[in-house]
Write a structure and sequence with these properties.
124 residues, seven-stranded mixed β-sheet, four-stranded antiparallel β-sheet
Length: 124
């Protein structure tokens, strides 16, 4: 089992920045692929970013490319999402996720472990 706990969400003005953190405990996190998804009420969970276990195979949704950066520190069992140039449409609950076997990182069903979510609200 892996437990994931997000932090760092909050309220920010458009154009601002936030850094989300996701602390993992339990099984060896180092060999897990990781990702970030987001969800707004009434919509499906949406892919944001993903990274392979060694820090390679990085991918981003087109809507965040160039503004968001995913990273990880395996020594600290922590992953991050740095969000710059935030827009009101980035408002959502953000979830971190992980799994030891991920074939398609953009699909939510590819991941077995999820955090509880952290709210990000961007005001205009």
């Amino acid at each position: 089992q892996v437990q994931l706990v997000e932090s760092g969400g909050g309220l920010v003005q458009a154009g601002g920045s936030l850094r989300l953190s996701c602390a993992a405990s339990g099984r060896t996190f180092s060999y897990f692929s990781v990702g970030w998804f987001r969800q707004v009420p009434g919509k499906e969970r949406e892919f944001v970013a993903a990274m392979g276990w060694s820090g390679d195979r990085i991918s981003y949704a087109d809507s965040v490319k160039g503004r968001f950066t995913i990273s990880r520190d395996n020594a600290k069992n922590t992953m991050y999402l740095l969000m710059n140039s935030l827009k009101p449409e980035d408002t959502a609950v953000y979830y971190c996720t992980a799994d030891p076997r991920v074939v398609n990182p953009a699909l939510a069903r590819a991941y077995g472990y999820w955090g509880q979510g952290t709210q990000v609200t961007v005001s205009s």
